[in-house]
TrEMBL record:
Source organism of the structure: Rhodanobacter terrae
Signal peptide annotation: 1-37
Entries under InterPro entries matching the protein: GH, GH13_cat_dom, Glyco_hydro_13_lg-like_dom, Glyco_hydro_b, Ig-like_fold, Ig_E-set
Keyword Cell membrane: no
Name this polypeptide is given: Glycoside hydrolase family 13 protein
Length: 674
């Protein structure tokens, strides 16, 4: 222990005084390092520094409390004199230091690897690197390299926290059930079948307008898509598209087509089938007789119910008394009334969506939604349905007393909900909806496994490729800003959370990517290349695989065009090729990510995905014309004279001077694998 409180671990006592003295000069010399006596020009070469929590640089991304974590730092060969890990330990609220030692050179002889080990314990830790060359010091953490010590953006060590391997390694397909495929006309909603909130149901022909014939009644428009239709198209989803995870927008009983105003959490909506239909669909998704084993995620709308729910019963549809009908109702405390019955807390002022009041731990609402043995969350996770996870709608708003904020109660609810989910199936996924930095719900290791990646994927991809934000507003960014945006948002999350983030081009809440691309299918091609090779779970909103267009809600929920949903469609064929490539290379799923090239002038971007088995360079061209791209694959330790194969065309390239040059068509990509 030095006088200033810094702890030096793994060092002989006889050397401690010398090390502490060196620390006073802000540079801790490494021990037993052949690089220490090499070139010392008092300048840390930032371009040579690299670390992420990929398998080559972190031996336990998801450690147990008994596993020490050995970290590897890459530098230019003979560039530095010492390196240290500085980590914050939540157990004692203090920083600790670990001296790193030189370990080896890379295959090219251009780089050195330095290693250090953070000792095992159950506490959460956050680390950065101090890198020294004589009197010069640089700092590296997840946010990047700086000359001054950073105060945020560190890497994570969260013992005991894991995210589902199937989510990290899978491809997800999102379906708005009414608009995908009509598998049974027997359950179709007919014209005028019922009236809700002044709107009579309208049955529209498949492929026609999603806009209602009566103003303000778009939620009453039905096309007949159902669970049987999804079941009948599992071969298309699993084999043609190549997705093994299916996420369904809400399927529980509700008077609207979108089902975000739940009437009964225990019953599948009759327009979609029955509980038995869901049981069959879940079993068929899990089956391997129709393609790879699949997984099913349901949309959990737990922030609010519909006003037709028995707990509320605004229209007296139920024999029991709901909170709107009587202050003596069993469920009166489930909601927050400012002035009963007409003034109550809602989801952003929508009267048909009264907000649930979760109260304190052990409350009736908490027990009904997730904590009790017969709760909504646990029931559908258990046999015979055995769903594999929940996507949590409006997840940051669940709290007490009608609040619509991310308060302490919300995080407590999310932690309890996670415990409930994992108690039934430790391998189930908890996916939160959040449109910004979801770090507060993922960085503590006790709430979500991942989030809908609006901020770290959908928005930057749209702005770079289409020149519009995800709402269709003009917003164009150069590739250097795109790369910086991606880097910054990755730094918001632990690595295993990054790998489980839902990366989508479109969703049911934003305009279609195809619309923002102006119908240019080549921009969809380019987006698919990126989506299938970036960090996170590729999530295809039904129809995006062929470039479906659509404006703001409800136009983003058009019916699927089955004349285009075929391998004969070029975009669908490319999707299949890309999902096949992703499934074949773990490096594309859990490997390191390294930026290799940004060219604002020519709109070119290249990055590496690699592990100890494969080195993969992805080259993207966002220009309208073809460009020859010289990609510095040597940065991934690819040696001169070796060969890389472009996985779409099969063309082989030989590495010369640490680079390969590949011609990439406009709005297209290349994937070079070794």
């Amino acid at each position: 222990m030095c006088d200033d409180g810094k702890t030096i671990l793994g060092v002989k006592p006889s050397l401690a005084l010398a090390i502490c003295a060196a620390l006073a000069l802000y540079a801790l010399p490494a021990l037993n390092s052949p690089a220490s006596a090499a070139s010392n020009d008092n300048n840390v070469e930032w371009a040579g520094l690299f670390h992420d929590q990929g398998p080559m640089f972190d031996n336990h991304v998801e450690p147990t409390s008994a596993q020490a974590v050995t970290l590897t730092l890459r530098t230019f060969k003979n560039d530095i004199t010492s390196a240290n890990i500085k980590y914050y330990d939540s157990a004692d609220g203090a920083f600790h230091w670990v001296a790193m030692s030189w370990s080896s050179n890379d295959a090219t002889g251009v780089y050195d690897y330095w290693k250090g080990t953070v000792p095992a314990s159950a506490s959460h830790k956050y680390y950065r690197f101090q890198i020294n060359d004589g009197s010069a010091t640089a700092w590296l953490n997840a946010a990047g390299t700086t000359s001054a010590e950073p105060s945020s953006g560190d890497f994570y060590i969260l013992p005991g926290f894991t995210t589902p391997a199937w989510m990290k390694n899978g491809v997800m397909y999102q379906i708005f059930p009414d608009r995908f495929y009509n598998g049974s006309t027997a359950n179709d909603v007919t014209n005028g079948q019922y009236t809700y909130a002044g709107c009579a149901t309208e049955k529209h022909a498949w492929g026609t307008s999603v806009v209602s014939n009566v103003g303000g009644c778009n939620s009453a428009v039905f096309f007949g898509g159902d669970l049987a239709g999804i079941d009948q198209k599992l071969g298309y989803i699993k084999n043609t598209v190549g997705a093994d995870i299916i996420y369904l927008n809400p399927i529980f009983h509700s008077p609207t087509n979108h089902k975000y105003d739940t009437e009964d959490y225990t019953t599948v909506d009759p327009a979609f089938g029955t509980n038995a239909t869901l049981q069959t669909l879940s079993a068929d998704i899990h089956s391997t007789s129709n393609g790879p084993r699949g997984y099913l995620i349901l949309d959990g709308v737990f922030n609010h119910t519909g006003d037709t729910h028995a707990w509320f019963d605004r229209y007296n549809w139920w024999a029991t008394n709901g909170a709107y009908e009587s202050q003596s109702s069993t469920w009166y405390g489930y909601y927050n009334f400012q002035s009963w019955p007409g003034t109550y807390s809602t989801f952003f002022g929508v009267p048909s969506m009264p907000k649930l009041n979760y109260g304190a731990t052990g409350s009736a609402v908490r027990n009904a939604i997730y904590a009790g043995s017969t709760s909504v969350v646990k029931t559908w996770l258990q046999a015979p349905y055995s769903i594999d996870g929940w996507r949590l709608d409006a997840a940051q708003y669940l709290d007490a007393n009608g609040n619509n904020g991310s308060d302490t109660t919300n995080h407590q609810i999310m932690a309890e909900l996670r415990t409930a989910v994992k108690s039934v199936n430790p391998n189930a996924d908890v996916l939160g909806e959040f449109w910004g930095n979801a770090g507060p719900w993922t960085d503590t290791g006790d709430q979500w496994d991942g989030a809908m990646n609006y901020d770290g994927f959908a928005q930057p991809v749209s702005e770079w490729i289409t020149g519009q934000d995800y709402s269709g507003n003009a917003a164009s960014i150069p590739v250097s800003q795109f790369d910086s945006w991606l880097h910054g948002t990755r730094a918001n999350y632990p690595t295993d959370v990054q790998q489980a983030m839902s990366n989508f081009l479109s969703s049911h809440d934003i305009t279609r990517f195809g619309n923002r691309a102006g119908g240019d299918i080549w921009k969809t091609y380019l987006a698919l290349f990126f989506q299938m090779t970036y960090v996170g779970t590729p999530t295809i909103y039904y129809g995006d695989e062929y470039g479906m267009q659509g404006g703001a809600d409800p136009d983003n929920r058009r019916t699927f065009d089955w004349t285009l949903g075929s391998i004969t469609n070029s975009a669908v064929a490319l999707t299949q090729k890309l999902t096949t490539i992703r499934n074949a290379y773990p490096a594309l799923r859990t490997g390191s990510f390294m930026t290799l090239l940004t060219d604002d002038t020519n709109k070119l971007y290249a990055y590496g995905r690699f592990d100890s088995t494969n080195r993969i360079a992805v080259a993207l061209n966002n220009d309208t014309v073809a460009h020859a791209m010289t990609v510095p694959v040597g940065q991934m330790s690819v040696i001169n004279g070796s060969h890389l194969t472009e996985l779409i065309s099969g063309t082989q390239y030989t590495v010369q001077n640490g680079t390969v040059t590949v011609t990439v068509n406009g709005h297209y990509g290349a994937i070079l694998a070794q």
